[in-house]
Amino acid sequence: MQWLLHHLVCLSLQYIFSALVVAAASSQPGATDDDNKQVYIVYMGSLPTTGSEYTPQSHHISILQQVVEGRSAVDFLVRSYNRSFNGFAARISSDEGHKISGMSKVVSVFPSKTLHFHTTRSWDFIGFTEDTKSSRTGESDVIIGVIDSGIWPESESFCDQGFGPPPQKWKGQCAGGENFICNNKIIGARFYDNDRSARDNIGHGSHTASIAAGNKVSRVSFYGMAKGNARGRAPSARIAVYKPCDDSCSDQQVLAAFDDAIADGVDIITISLGGGYHQPFENDAVAIGAFHAMEKGILTVHSAGNFGNEKTLVGLGVNSFVMSGKFPLIFGSDSDKCARTCSDGYLDSKIVKGNIVLCESDMTTCPFDEPLSAGAVGAIALGTNADNSTSYIDP
Ligand SMILES: *[C@@H]1O[C@H](CO)[C@@H](O)[C@H](O)[C@H]1NC(C)=O
Ligand SMILES: *[C@@H]1O[C@H](CO)[C@@H](O)[C@H](O)[C@H]1NC(C)=O
């Protein structure tokens, strides 16, 4: 049973998805005006089709200059959107935002909110099974723009064996930054976050990109679970990576990704991010991006969310190893009142020995050491935050 001790799987149960709504900072005594500023998006609709002398960024600065009296507007401009639609992101106060929203040519002004990762279900779920026919030649001209946390270019899912050069219509770039090389499968890369490359550090972007267009990779599994073939719906399609997210993403970065993806000439955009709240379309970065994509005939595929239908599912837990026998499950607090979270030194080894212990604790402080040293054969961590609930194997 030694192996069991070395393979404790920490499962974090998903509770409520808490949407992070960034509210305008409230004035506090002593707070300077700059402390009350946050990033707002000023959305200005389509770019003018006539007037070659129109330069979006100077227009944006002139709008901003009218509200940041006596100071240089350039210092407050975060970025301009000027390739596929018109608008900008700026660090301003809610009063300044309110003033801008009354100006001509401005459609909406809204705080840049935080978006969270969503994940889609398999193609089988929507009826496209592995033997569904697709045309390899037609497909290899299709460019799918993936707006997410980047990509892991060396993954087998994105190997370019058998791919010819990028389609001639492609206008994008490989600007993936440090330690990032494109190939004939990943034909473009750009990033907008604080990392120095379009490389995916958390896996979500590689996952969603492989669902859309990953090569077929045989015999894969998640630490031995869910064994099978991984495959995208369009394995011969090309991928253009846009990375607005590291741990999370902001509206202002997501809009920059749409601005580029549309102008670069992708055929389809896939985005599995969302805020978990409803808002009017003119204040919704994904809706604005998808609208201007559609104007150019580009379809946007957007995840619906991770909320499910609010029903409780009852089932068996999963693990990646064979359990030799059955073990009782006990709650940390059964052994000691202070042991609910399985904190150091609180578990009574006489009680937990030979049991699987349920600990009321988040993944971030996953308490393996304590149940292990107290003689438990396993531990389950009960997390409360669906955002960073994850699977975890020890060691
Ligand atoms: C377009 O926006 C980018 C990014 O903010 C900026 O660097 C560039 O100067 C802008 N170009 C024009 C013509 O406004
Ligand atoms: C998990 O989520 C909580 C609440 O959003 C946050 O405070 C914490 O930093 C997150 N932990 C990690 C490892 O991301």
From TrEMBL:
Domain Peptidase S8/S53: 140-309
Enzyme active site: 148 (charge relay system), 204 (charge relay system), 391 (charge relay system)
PROSITE patterns from the UniProt entry: SUBTILASE (PS51892)
Pfam families documented for this protein: Inhibitor_I9 (PF05922), Peptidase_S8 (PF00082)
Signal sequence, renumbered to the chain: 1-18
UniProt keyword terms in alphabetical order: Hydrolase, Protease, Serine protease, Signal
Inhibitor I9 domain location: 39-118
PANTHER family named in the record: PROPROTEIN CONVERTASE SUBTILISIN/KEXIN
Family: Belongs to the peptidase S8 family.
Protein name per the record: Cucumisin
Record organism: Xanthoceras sorbifolium
